[in-house]
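ok, trying the design again with the full structure, not the truncated one.
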């Protein structure tokens, strides 16, 4: 079984050389060298430090409150949000109406010979 700081089963004594080679190869490719150096700096400089979980975007209490709110509403799933009537009903109806109008106008113009090239 490999150690936590080893890469692909390679022991820690060789990991610095492996990362140095990866930085040289990736630094000369289309990726910017600073991106590669930043992504490998933690592994090279701080191999004993483990990554800490980042803070959530929203507090758990807020998420649970929103979940209870949305689960208590007895509407269809696509109509539960505050502007879902606009995005799920009005916009598709407007697109369908305008496309039917354009199709009807095209049929009318073709049947009456409007826009026909001589």
């Amino acid at each position: 079984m490999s150690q936590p700081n080893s890469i692909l089963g390679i022991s820690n004594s060789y990991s610095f050389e492996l990362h140095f080679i990866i930085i040289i190869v990736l630094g000369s490719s289309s990726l910017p060298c600073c991106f590669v150096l930043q992504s490998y700096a933690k592994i090279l400089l701080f191999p004993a430090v483990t990554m800490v979980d980042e803070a959530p975007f929203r507090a758990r209490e807020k998420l649970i409150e929103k979940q209870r709110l949305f689960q208590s509403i007895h509407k269809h799933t696509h109509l539960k949000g505050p502007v879902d009537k606009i995005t799920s009903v009005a916009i598709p109806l407007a697109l369908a109406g305008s496309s039917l109008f354009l199709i009807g106008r095209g049929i009318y113009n073709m049947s009456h010979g409007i826009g026909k090239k001589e």
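Keeping the full-length input from now on. Confidence is low (pLDDT under 50) at residues 10-29, 31-37.
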